[in-house]
Each structure stands twice: as structure tokens, then as C-alpha cells.
Write a structure and sequence with these properties.
About 25% of the residues lie in helices and about 10% in strands. With about 70 residues, it is an alpha+beta fold.
Length: about 70
């Protein structure tokens, strides 16, 4: 299995990706050939903010709890 990173781009009313020429040549992909692509979305750190609902302890309270263990 080969893994590459590429950007999805608007193509009419669809989204498309372009496979690099080196990959096409290495694998031997031909026009109109059926291929299987596994899609995995990369996440940015800023997308994780707000995911921990119920995390309502203040910074000071967390620092106090850490100090108790020392």
C-alpha cells in the first residue's frame, strides 16, 4: 500500500484529487482503470478545542491538584 498526501479541490459540483505522476508510473495506473482509494481526513489541532465537554475545572484548581501529589 502506498500513502500520499494531496489536497481535495473543487471540480464542478464535485471534489477531486490529483494523483502525482510518479505514483501513477510506479503503480502502473492506466486511464479508465478502476482503482481503490482509502480516504483518511487529517485533523488540525484547533478542531479539537471544545471536544472535551464537561471539562470545567479552572486552571488554578488543576494546578492545586498537581501540587498535592508532590
Amino acid at each position: 500500500m502506498v500513502e500520499i498526501q494531496t489536497k481535495a479541490k473543487k471540480w464542478g459540483s464535485s471534489i477531486g484529487v490529483i494523483l502525482p505522476k510518479s505514483l501513477v508510473e510506479d503503480i502502473g495506473i492506466k486511464p479508465n482503470e478502476t482503482i481503490t482509494i482509502e480516504v483518511k481526513k487529517s485533523h488540525k489541532a484547533k478542531e479539537f478545542f471544545g471536544l472535551l465537554k464537561g471539562w470545567k475545572r479552572s486552571t488554578q484548581k488543576i494546578k492545586d491538584e498537581v501540587r498535592k501529589g508532590w
